[in-house]
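Working notes for the structural subgroup meeting. M.R. asked for a predicted model of this chain before we commit to crystallization trials. I am recording the input and output together here so anyone reviewing the notebook later can reproduce the run.

Input as submitted:
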Amino acid sequence: MLALSYLSAILVAVAPIVSANFDLNVAIGDVATIFPWPDQIGIWVLTDGDDPKCEDLAENGVIAGWDERNDLSHGREGMRCVPGSHCGYYHPDDHPWPSVELLEMHFTNNPLHHFTIYKDRGYTAPDGFTWLWPMYGVDGNTYGACHTDTRKNWDCNLNDDKLKLHGRRKFRCLTSITAKEINDAKRQGGKKAGDFEEYRNPDYPFFEVLSHNGTAIPTVRRLLGRVEVACQLNMRWR
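Returned structure, recorded in token form:
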């Protein structure tokens, strides 16, 4: 846990706008399949506080997660990390300070939660050593600041162990917006629960993926017989 003096110094630097915070985490995990081996996925997730609970990550069985993308224009949700190598969720244990120059976050469209942090636009907090990265909105205004922090990692087994996630915090963002606020907006946005759009994943011909809330519910269906295993997860196959 952050020392009180350390946290106070950071809060002073971004006062008076700060009344909450959220953590940016990368998570990789294994999803159970009908085969002897699992499939690996990677996502960014948001958490509140130093001790996130697994049930908070998967509220009502739906995980709010974001893929990495090269382009977040035209309302595309996701995370854009520069440079692309050693930057995101397939390098969970890499420290973001030497690896990240810019992180663009397009969480939701309604309401609009879109922020970008830049290392070279940062400044030193009053503690004399913490480097704060201002959170810029699309309107050019700042909505808080983030700092690198990888001192927290966590493991969650979800959906009767069909999904096993290992996560590590990359940034703590000091702002008036909470992870719960953004996660709830993500879960409620896009398609309704009963409004599915089918498409085939060419990399996994044995799998059928149903779109839900703008992301996907992987549905593993055996071609012979009527055995079906559904993982209620709000994320895309990687």
